[in-house]
Write a sequence for this structure.
């Protein structure tokens, strides 16, 4: 069994007779895992409650699959986190797992920057103790954690106003501890590109290459979140200069980027001018995977008024579209069967976390006759490109009747693998199987 994924596959040999199938793209906005607009959920005390089922179902119905879970540890600045609060965190995670959602995760101590909002954070020792306390939860529920924002430091966990983390060494120590606390398959996000460059001695010349992408290194596991997106010429201090912006544009081909706007500005129009890119081009340049659906209201209103909101909703993160499939004519059980599949990514970004990929063969009753691992990583199905999967499979002997071949892109975590709510749906008409999470690509008889 062999597979490859490239833009220019070898031409099909003349003697191989293949049937060509074309697919119709869908314009529907539907939920897909680990992408899109998110809903924010703040927890300030030990409520002992998760997120209500009805709320989660409503979010999915509106095309969302992400929450920003913000846990404020204000009551524990000088003490351990209480067991009651830890159980509240557990219940929030469990409700996501039960409801088919994932989260962007952040811990913080204060949600204001005035003197009355102090302390803005805890001591370095106390922060590390709190991280030690939540680490078992992060590892138990990492399946529903899309990405972890570095948090902990300063107001809102955004690393600017701080009482205790002025030293670069203390900030790096926290990021290193976060990277160690969560599985290697998950990334950490920093608030500005400058933080990553300073903490790890990197520059524009050191951006992640294709060969380095998605390796279990600090460099490959640190992305960014911009919480003043398109809100000024430098996004209110997010970028110090042009190279900072270029750094994120290069890095985010392979690392997670998301955030929110913080005020209305000329830079957030849908379309650009000679002075600025405009939202659509900038979201593509910085490979945005997620945004806040609740903030900033004036920016979101502008996108609706100017007519690009629907496109942004559909293109945040990945949007995988089947273009064409070619399949062996007159297939026979027990013999080789060739598949050539073209998939276009219309999204702003790629799939970012590990994702399984397989062909699944089912009979007319839906029973699985065989499955075949695809040796192609969906994380490299790049935005703006068409990837080709070419693979020959062996059909099982003794099969008769009608069979369906599907593309299955399930979550690799055992807890979620068989849950269709966590499988990727292709943006095509008449392909999605809601009950299984499979995407139908071909039906034939044996």
């Amino acid at each position: 069994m062999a597979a490859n994924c490239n833009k220019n596959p070898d031409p099909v040999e003349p003697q191989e007779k293949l049937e060509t199938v074309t697919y119709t793209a869908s314009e529907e906005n539907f939920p897909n895992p680990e992408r899109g607009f998110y809903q924010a959920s703040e927890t300030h005390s030990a409520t002992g409650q998760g997120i209500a089922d009805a709320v989660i179902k409503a979010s999915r119905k509106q095309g969302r699959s992400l929450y920003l879970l913000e846990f404020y540890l204000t009551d524990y600045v000088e003490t351990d986190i209480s067991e009651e609060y830890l159980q509240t965190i557990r219940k929030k995670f469990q409700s996501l797992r039960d409801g088919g959602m994932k989260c962007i995760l952040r811990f913080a101590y204060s949600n204001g920057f005035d003197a009355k909002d102090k302390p803005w954070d805890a001591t370095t020792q106390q922060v590390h103790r709190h991280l030690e306390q939540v680490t078992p939860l992060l590892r138990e529920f990492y399946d529903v954690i899309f990405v972890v924002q570095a948090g902990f430091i300063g107001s809102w966990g955004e690393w600017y106003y701080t009482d205790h983390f002025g030293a670069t060494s203390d900030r790096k120590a926290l990021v290193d501890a976060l990277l160690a606390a969560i599985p290697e398959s998950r990334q950490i996000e920093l608030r500005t590109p400058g933080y990553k460059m300073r903490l790890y001695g990197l520059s524009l010349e050191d951006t992640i290459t294709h060969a380095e992408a998605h390796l279990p290194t600090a460099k490959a596991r640190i992305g960014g979140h911009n919480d003043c997106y398109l809100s000024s010429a430098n996004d209110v201090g997010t970028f110090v200069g042009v190279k900072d912006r270029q750094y994120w544009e290069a890095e985010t081909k392979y690392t997670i980027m998301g955030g929110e706007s913080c005020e209305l500005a000329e830079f957030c129009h849908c379309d650009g001018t000679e002075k600025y890119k405009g939202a659509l081009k900038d979201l593509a340049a910085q490979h945005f995977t997620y945004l806040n659906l609740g903030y900033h209201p004036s920016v979101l209103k502008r996108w609706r008024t100017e007519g690009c909101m629907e496109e942004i909703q559909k293109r945040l993160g990945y949007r995988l579209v089947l273009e064409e499939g070619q399949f062996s004519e007159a297939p026979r059980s027990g013999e080789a069967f060739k598949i050539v599949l073209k998939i276009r990514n219309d999204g702003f970004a790629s799939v970012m976390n590990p994702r399984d990929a397989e062909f699944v063969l089912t009979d007319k009753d839906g029973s699985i006759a065989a499955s075949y691992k695809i040796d192609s990583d969906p994380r490299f199905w790049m935005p703006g490109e068409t990837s080709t999967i070419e693979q020959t499979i062996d059909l099982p002997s003794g099969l008769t009747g009608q069979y369906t071949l599907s593309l299955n892109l399930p979550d690799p975590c055992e807890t979620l693998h068989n849950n269709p709510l966590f499988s990727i749906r292709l943006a095509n008409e008449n392909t999605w199987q809601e009950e299984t999470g499979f995407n139908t690509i071909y039906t034939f008889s044996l």
Summary: The mean pLDDT is 95. The first strand starts at residue 3 and ends at 6. DSSP finds ten helices and 18 strands in the chain.
